[in-house]
Amino acid sequence: MENSEAKAFLLIIGNEILSGRTKDANTQFLGRKLGEIGIRVCESRILPDDEKKIIDTIRQNKDQFDYIFTTGGIGPTHDDITAKAVARALNIEFERNAEAEELLRNFYSPDDITEARLSMADMPKGATLMENPISKAPGFKIENVFVLPGIPKIVEGMFEGLRHHLAESSPFLSKTIVSPLPEGLIGGPLADIQAQYQQTEIGSYPFSKDGKMGVNIVIRSKNVENIKPVAIAIQNMIQRLEFP
Amino acid sequence: MENSEAKAFLLIIGNEILSGRTKDANTQFLGRKLGEIGIRVCESRILPDDEKKIIDTIRQNKDQFDYIFTTGGIGPTHDDITAKAVARALNIEFERNAEAEELLRNFYSPDDITEARLSMADMPKGATLMENPISKAPGFKIENVFVLPGIPKIVEGMFEGLRHHLAESSPFLSKTIVSPLPEGLIGGPLADIQAQYQQTEIGSYPFSKDGKMGVNIVIRSKNVENIKPVAIAIQNMIQRLEFP
């Protein structure tokens, strides 16, 4: 089990992200937090508020991945179509969830409990609620699909409460080696090292600092024993190039 | 032509984005800049450095969209696989581009022109170069696929130079109305307005400021005449709810 690797697919929903009005922050947060518990995010797909696209995407991917996480589109307005789309994708009845309704009725005063707000309790039948410690309206889990809100602060608040629904395994570990030499000089020998250690992921991320180009070389694996020899090989390679 | 709408698909390539190490900024930049020239970004897909996935995605989408933009994976290291994947997706020979090679040879001193750097001139046969005003190594266009680097500053620098390859049409216009009432109170009447004006996109984006919830309501259309009546209807609706 220790090195098993669960796979996740993210579905980020919202016209405002594709129009550039809002920058998606949920991919980064979920990628990092899921990686910490050994789950690899294999794809993140940003789609508009389009029911058919959401339904098709969930149907095409739900059996390919251990988990699907959606963010966005579960508020009280007309453009919040995710919950119903998920129900349709899974061919599950869409109905008012009694537990979610109670949460909302306890949170809002009777004068403020509009039909729009109550619609946030409409979910696929059999959904398990995901607690929202910030604004109460819950997310939910149905089969292997986790339906989360779009606002990053609420996604963050909800994550701790949903962790226990996920099969945790050993986290991805990473070691970053900073190369003072640019990618163009280390590219060849680095490719040789990657070819020698194919089981270990080596990423190369150039940066520019004070006008000089350097590279963050990131070694990533679930097993620290896989990281060590690669780190040593890379450090030696840089040293040979720097002090020939 | 004025209200025609070209459609774009973004393919954001990089393990570092899915692991949460790096936050994608290219979707927002391209979404905004393309919107300004009337091109709608319909989807943005973030994929790992995986040749097969890149090939499959380009093949499945290139005929569905007017433009595909890829970002990432065109540097000089082993994880830079985008250019070759694009060539394979389109069944085009992958070869050294003479013009790109010359650019690189003029930019680097003879001592610094490694094989890794020259590999940045390997492209699908017949590619048109996209000028890189920052670090020289060019992007390219082949058929309807624009292949851009991953570093946001370079994407930004490259964009002005590639605009003339795009069929510009009237830009998307938007008007934001700030509602001091939260989504739960305006959700019902706002849905009625959307139902009445189906050709005009209305987005609802909640915010929290000084502990009070409000909503940015964004009306979006290519035609200002479509925006006006919707804006008036929304302003009147908010006023009725605020001062009943």
SSE inventory with pairings:
Two copies of one chain form a homodimer.
Chain A: E1 6-13, H1 15-18, H2 26-36, E2 39-47, H3 51-61, E3 67-71, H4 82-89, E4 94-96, H5 98-107, H6 115-118, E5 122-124, E6 128-132, E7 136-142, E8 145-148, H7 152-162, E9 173-179, H8 183-196, E10 201-209, E11 212-221, H9 224-242
Parallel strand pairs in A: 1-2, 1-3, 3-8
Antiparallel strand pairs in A: 4-5, 6-7, 7-8, 9-11, 10-11
Helix pairs in contact in A: 3-4, 8-9
Q: Count of DSSP E strands of chain A?
A: 11
What strand line-up does the widest sheet of chain A have? 2-1-3-8-7-6
Note the beta-strand portion of chain A: 25-35%
- The CATH architecture of the largest domain in chain A would be 3-Layer(aba) Sandwich
Low-pLDDT stretches of chain A are: none
Give the tally of structural domains of chain A: 2
Which structural class do you get from the secondary structure elements of chain A? alpha/beta
N-to-C order of helices and strands of chain A: EHHEHEHEHHEEEEHEHEEH
**Name given to the CATH homologous superfamily of the largest domain in chain A:** MoaB/Mog-like domain
Oligomer: homodimer
Our count of helices of chain A gives 9
Overall mean confidence score, pLDDT of chain A: 95
